[in-house]
């Protein structure tokens, strides 16, 4: 799966996340802990299981016994695209599964849930022997807890004999996107229904009874019965259509050729009234893009169709195995909540992940499409052809697809330099998560991933992003050529089979040995440290002595580490480094502490470790080296690689928050930014600087801080003004496109005159001539916000009227709600809050956005706190505002001790009203810690800022 939340700039998808991010930073730490606590609570088997349940019978266990191996399935489905008398959308179906008995048993367990069965001679199934008679059935029933159809037999099945189990069933095509489901969209004013599937990880059993484990691969023959004006698609190419009449309805029966041998979770079928475009006939693999006829007619699928063939060709070469199917369909599913799903031959995508031109034809949309198509096609080999035996190693499947998709994207759009900034940004992002004491190892134990709930939980960003990061590290220390070689022999040996990570390590080791690459430890031993224990090291290099140490990096001082690790939180760390801008031989740190005399420097030398962020660690230096890095940044920052400039900023602020370096040191690193124009360093600086601004807002220090940032951002603002010919053109490099947004954003936030003027001018033009809006979509959020902040009632009312018209895209609607929250007029804030209580004004679905946005505006904070206090019962009942979000918003409002004390006064009241437990308030300890931190640093920072800004 390509989880939607892992896509950068998922346009509409991610805009909410982005909006939230602005707030998240204020209390990133506290909220993260709160969230992960509640998440972790969910994974504990003790809460997933009824208390003290002791499995006794075979059907009490979540894993299938090893008595039966499926060989093939013949499945027929008839989805009803119109509701029945009870307003239900149903499907009916039948399934014949042929299986072989591999160990004697008188019991058949087959997964099934949410299905109703037709009883056949009083049983849920019929059994036939293919090599002689089958034992008769004794008893059949549905075991809902473990999601089985249980078939007890009168006598045993014979080892090595084959049998056929036939079932007939009905289910609901619900709107929940699991198993066989429906999705609804409107075209030309007509509501249309499409039936589609999502089987990963454990939903195939909701569509038909099957042995639903990834290692139980089989061949599937799919048949679909569907209305005459619809198309049916499945993994394989269509093998025949027949017109049939059932109960007076004219229908088509479409059958599909047998699939290759594959796992149940990769099965897919769709019935829709779509249009499509396809590659030229005559190519070896047919590639099609499917979407609503309107979308296809408007050319929205063209870009995906243009890029899928070169990406597929790239992988055929990369993996050195031809794509094994005749076709590859890419289909857009309206409202698909999973990002995209790599069903073999029929990949499903959420619309923004496949189509383009949904809003404006802006570049970010294409980037999402390329990334998603690359990710899903990468799975066709790694994941589909060779499959991990069990879900506990999901990280290898998803991490690999994520890592390789960067190569695929880069191949499809070489001029975009995507590889140079996407991977590093994701690495810094996931480090932040993995630094929490509630993180988890990439690979969990097989026993910890048994229930559907536990399996679902594995699809998180550690799995995707850290997985990709450690594989990127691996590719650097064995070299990309060796990685590719090992991968190719691995795929060849295990095609159509299942593996465990050890199998991949073995093949990589063979490739390493063959290439004569010397590693200090075998590949498997090195990788186990990164895969089997959570977190990552902080490397500290003392350039006075060459002393190098490692220590588990944790982002909170309060964190109590109670998860033991068999490796004692020590890693085998490949450290690349440069001295005075020249790369030195790679150094392996294999113990907690070591000395590398090459790293002992002369008094004018400088050292930077982890070149281009190829390894997964943070790094700290002795004070002298930090000083020399600062000097280098200020004299010739280009001597330090771009990615490292971003990393240096990121590391310094992180270490400062932990008190490991001075806060002024981190700030002094940003002093070179008046010479920096690149995206990566600005992006990191922007993140921390805004956090500073927000935390320090209600304090006297805020003024000097703003003045400092204004000074730093002015040159780069002017740079983009020139590059875009006074904001009339768009930059061509993607990283410039992003950076322009970052820079305008920050410049307007710190009230750089040129920026507020620009925003106001654009905004005025739009107000005076409202059908045409020249503000680029990627800038609209901050531009509207700045204009509203700088303006008064007129600007606010204009945005409000645009919001009320509600004709905009979802993204624009967020931008408008956000902009409304930026006003500095108290009475407008109060009115906006009042509107939240009136569904005629602010729809219920939008309330939580409005409140979340308002929380970031310092002027609105007292009003909001009062408003929440008076109305929270209402807000929680009426909207999608969860109790957790209330706490979240409230903590985000806390930046002074006075506010905290005020809040504590009515904490009891809140606890009672929302029936919250004391543990929900644990985040306040962190808020207190943050405040202590501010108190500790604000004088030092203040003095430094004054000295910086008053020097001229
Ligand atoms: C499954 O379908 C295929 C193709 O129609 C057919 O050849 C085969 O005999 C069927 N198998 C069973 C067990 O019905
Ligand atoms: C399965 O259902 C289809 C459609 O109703 C029917 O044509 C077919 O005969 C059924 N298969 C069996 C083995 O009964
Ligand atoms: C399954 O059976 C239950 C109980 O009779 C019924 O309420 C439900 O609607 C049925 N579902 C389907 C999909 O037929
Ligand atoms: C099925 O019916 C449609 C319209 O009723 C007709 O156009 C089509 O040719 C028929 N197909 C076959 C294979 O008979
Ligand atoms: C197919 O045609 C029927 C009858 O004309 C119509 O009611 C239905 O909405 C159509 N279905 C689709 C998916 O277009
Ligand atoms: Zn994936």
TrEMBL record:
<feature type="binding site">
    <location>
        <position position="398"/>
    </location>
    <ligand>
        <name>Zn(2+)</name>
    </ligand>
</feature>
<dbReference type="GO" id="GO:0006508">
    <property type="term" value="P:proteolysis"/>
</dbReference>
<keyword id="KW-1133">Transmembrane helix</keyword>
<keyword id="KW-0539">Nucleus</keyword>
<dbReference type="InterPro" id="IPR046360">
    <property type="entry name" value="T-box_DNA-bd"/>
</dbReference>
<keyword id="KW-0325">Glycoprotein</keyword>
<feature type="domain" description="T-box">
    <location>
        <begin position="499"/>
        <end position="687"/>
    </location>
</feature>
<keyword id="KW-0238">DNA-binding</keyword>
<dbReference type="GO" id="GO:0005886">
    <property type="term" value="C:plasma membrane"/>
</dbReference>
<feature type="site" description="Transition state stabilizer">
    <location>
        <position position="464"/>
    </location>
</feature>
<dbReference type="GO" id="GO:0005615">
    <property type="term" value="C:extracellular space"/>
</dbReference>
<keyword id="KW-0378">Hydrolase</keyword>
<dbReference type="InterPro" id="IPR042097">
    <property type="entry name" value="Aminopeptidase_N-like_N_sf"/>
</dbReference>
<dbReference type="GO" id="GO:0043171">
    <property type="term" value="P:peptide catabolic process"/>
</dbReference>
<feature type="active site" description="Proton acceptor">
    <location>
        <position position="376"/>
    </location>
</feature>
<keyword id="KW-0645">Protease</keyword>
<dbReference type="InterPro" id="IPR034016">
    <property type="entry name" value="M1_APN-typ"/>
</dbReference>
<dbReference type="GO" id="GO:0042277">
    <property type="term" value="F:peptide binding"/>
</dbReference>
<dbReference type="GO" id="GO:0005737">
    <property type="term" value="C:cytoplasm"/>
</dbReference>
<dbReference type="InterPro" id="IPR014782">
    <property type="entry name" value="Peptidase_M1_dom"/>
</dbReference>
<keyword id="KW-0472">Membrane</keyword>
<feature type="binding site">
    <location>
        <position position="375"/>
    </location>
    <ligand>
        <name>Zn(2+)</name>
    </ligand>
</feature>
<keyword id="KW-1015">Disulfide bond</keyword>
<feature type="binding site">
    <location>
        <position position="379"/>
    </location>
    <ligand>
        <name>Zn(2+)</name>
    </ligand>
</feature>
<dbReference type="InterPro" id="IPR027268">
    <property type="entry name" value="Peptidase_M4/M1_CTD_sf"/>
</dbReference>
<dbReference type="GO" id="GO:0003677">
    <property type="term" value="F:DNA binding"/>
</dbReference>
<dbReference type="InterPro" id="IPR001930">
    <property type="entry name" value="Peptidase_M1"/>
</dbReference>
<keyword id="KW-0735">Signal-anchor</keyword>
<keyword id="KW-1003">Cell membrane</keyword>
<dbReference type="GO" id="GO:0070006">
    <property type="term" value="F:metalloaminopeptidase activity"/>
</dbReference>
<protein>
    <recommendedName>
        <fullName>Aminopeptidase</fullName>
        <ecNumber>3.4.11.-</ecNumber>
    </recommendedName>
</protein>
<dbReference type="GO" id="GO:0045893">
    <property type="term" value="P:positive regulation of DNA-templated transcription"/>
</dbReference>
<dbReference type="GO" id="GO:0005634">
    <property type="term" value="C:nucleus"/>
</dbReference>
<dbReference type="InterPro" id="IPR045357">
    <property type="entry name" value="Aminopeptidase_N-like_N"/>
</dbReference>
<dbReference type="Pfam" id="PF01433">
    <property type="entry name" value="Peptidase_M1"/>
</dbReference>
<keyword id="KW-0862">Zinc</keyword>
<dbReference type="InterPro" id="IPR050344">
    <property type="entry name" value="Peptidase_M1_aminopeptidases"/>
</dbReference>
<dbReference type="InterPro" id="IPR024571">
    <property type="entry name" value="ERAP1-like_C_dom"/>
</dbReference>
<keyword id="KW-0479">Metal-binding</keyword>
<keyword id="KW-0482">Metalloprotease</keyword>
<dbReference type="GO" id="GO:0003700">
    <property type="term" value="F:DNA-binding transcription factor activity"/>
</dbReference>
<keyword id="KW-0031">Aminopeptidase</keyword>
């Amino acid at each position: 799966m390509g989880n939607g939340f892992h896509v950068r700039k998922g346009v509409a998808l991610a805009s909410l996340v982005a909006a939230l991010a602005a707030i998240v930073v204020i209390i990133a730490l506290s909220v993260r802990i709160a969230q992960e606590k509640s998440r972790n609570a969910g994974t504990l088997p003790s809460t997933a299981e009824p208390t003290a349940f002791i499995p006794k019978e075979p059907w009490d266990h979540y894993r299938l016994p090893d008595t039966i191996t499926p060989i093939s399935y013949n499945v027929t489905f008839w989805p009803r695209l119109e509701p029945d008398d009870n307003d239900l959308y149903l499907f009916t179906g039948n399934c014949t599964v042929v299986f072989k008995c591999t160990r004697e048993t008188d019991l058949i367990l087959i997964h099934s849930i949410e299905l109703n069965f037709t009883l056949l001679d009083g049983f849920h199934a019929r059994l036939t022997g293919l090599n002689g008679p089958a034992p008769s059935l004794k008893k059949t029933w549905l075991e809902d807890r473990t999601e089985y159809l249980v078939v007890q037999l009168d006598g045993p099945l014979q080892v090595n004999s084959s049998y056929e189990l036939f079932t007939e069933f009905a289910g609901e095509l619900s709107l929940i996107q699991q198993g066989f489901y429906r999705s609804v969209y409107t075209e030309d004013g007509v509501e249309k229904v499409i039936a589609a599937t999502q089987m990963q990880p454990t939903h195939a059993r909701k569509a038909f009874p099957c042995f639903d484990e990834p290692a139980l691969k089989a061949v599937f023959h799919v048949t679909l019965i569907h209305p005459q004006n619809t198309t049916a698609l499945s993994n394989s190419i269509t093998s025949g259509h027949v017109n049939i009449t059932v109960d007076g309805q004219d229908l088509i029966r479409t059958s599909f050729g047998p699939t290759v041998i594959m796992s149940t979770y990769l099965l897919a079928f769709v019935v829709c009234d779509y249009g499509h475009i396809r590659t030229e006939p005559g190519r070896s693999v047919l590639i099609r893009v499917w979407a609503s006829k309107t979308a296809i007619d408007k050319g929205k699928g063209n870009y995906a169709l243009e890029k899928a063939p070169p990406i597929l060709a790239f992988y055929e070469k990369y993996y050195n195995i031809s794509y094994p199917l005749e076709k590859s369909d890419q289909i857009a599913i309206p409202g698909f909540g999973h990002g995209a799903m790599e069903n073999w031959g029929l990949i499903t995508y959420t619309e923004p992940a496949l189509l383009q031109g949904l809003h404006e034809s802006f570049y970010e949309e294409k980037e999402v499409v390329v990334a998603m198509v690359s990710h899903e096609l990468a799975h066709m080999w790694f994941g589909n052809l060779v499959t991990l035996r069990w879900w506990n190693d999901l990280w290898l499947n998803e991490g690999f697809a994520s890592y390789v998709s960067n190569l695929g994207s880069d191949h499809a759009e070489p001029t975009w330099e995507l590889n140079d900034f996407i991977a590093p940004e994701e690495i810094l992002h996931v480090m932040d998560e993995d630094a929490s004491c509630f993180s988890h190892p990439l690979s969990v134990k097989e026993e910890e991933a048994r229930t559907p709930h536990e399996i679902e939980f594995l699809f998180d960003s550690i799995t995707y992003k850290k997985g990709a990061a450690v594989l990127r590290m691996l590719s650097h220390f064995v070299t990309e050529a060796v990685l590719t070689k090992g991968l190719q022999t691995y795929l060849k040996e295990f095609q159509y089979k299942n593996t465990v990570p050890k199998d991949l390590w073995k093949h990589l080791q063979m490739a390493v040995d063959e290439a004569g690459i010397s590693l200090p430890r075998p590949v498997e031993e090195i990788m186990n440290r990164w895969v089997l224990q959570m977190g990552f090291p902080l490397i500290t290099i003392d350039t006075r002595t060459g002393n190098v140490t490692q220590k588990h990096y944790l982002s909170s001082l309060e964190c109590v580490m109670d998860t033991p690790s068999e490796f004692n939180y020590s890693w085998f760390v490949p450290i690349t480094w440069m001295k005075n801008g020249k790369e030195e031989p790679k150094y392996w740190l294999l113990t907690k502490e070591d000395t590398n005399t090459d790293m002992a420097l002369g008094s004018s030398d400088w050292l930077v470790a982890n070149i281009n962020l190829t390894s997964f660690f943070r790094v700290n230096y002795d004070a002298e080296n930090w000083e020399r890095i600062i000097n280098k940044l200020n004299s010739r920052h280009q001597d330090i690689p771009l990615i490292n400039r971003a990393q240096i900023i990121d590391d310094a602020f992180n270490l400062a928050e932990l008190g490991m370096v001075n806060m002024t040191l981190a700030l002094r690193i940003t002093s070179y930014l008046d010479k920096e124009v690149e995206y990566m360093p600005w992006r990191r600086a922007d993140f921390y600087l805004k956090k500073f601004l927000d935390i320090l807002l209600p304090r006297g220090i805020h003024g000097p801080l703003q003045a400092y940032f204004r000074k730093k951002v002015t040159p780069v603002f002017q740079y983009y003004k020139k590059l875009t010919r006074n904001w009339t053109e768009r930059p061509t490099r993607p990283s410039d496109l992003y950076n322009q947004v970052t820079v305008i954003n920050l410049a307007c936030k710190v009230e750089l005159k040129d920026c507020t003027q620009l925003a106001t001018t654009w905004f005025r033009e739009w107000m005076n001539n409202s059908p045409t809006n020249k503000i680029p979509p990627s800038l609209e959020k901050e531009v509207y916000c700045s204009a509203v902040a700088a303006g008064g009632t007129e600007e606010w009312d204009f945005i409000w009227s645009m919001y009320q018209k509600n004709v905009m895209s979802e993204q624009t609607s967020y931008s408008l709600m956000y902009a409304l929250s930026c006003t500095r007029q108290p009475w407008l804030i109060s009115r906006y809050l009042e509107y939240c209580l009136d569904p005629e004004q602010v729809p219920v679905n939008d309330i939580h956005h409005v409140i979340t946005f308002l929380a970031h505006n310092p002027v609105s904070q007292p009003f909001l706190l009062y408003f929440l206090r008076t109305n929270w019962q209402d807000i929680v009942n009426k909207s999608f505002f969860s109790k957790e979000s209330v706490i979240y918003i409230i903590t985000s409002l806390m930046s002074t001790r006075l506010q905290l004390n005020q809040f504590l006064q009515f904490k009891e009241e809140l606890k009672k009203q929302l029936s919250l437990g004391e543990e929900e308030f644990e985040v306040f300890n962190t808020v207190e810690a943050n405040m202590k931190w501010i108190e500790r640093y604000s004088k030092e920072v203040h003095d430094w800022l004054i000295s910086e800004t008053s020097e001229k």
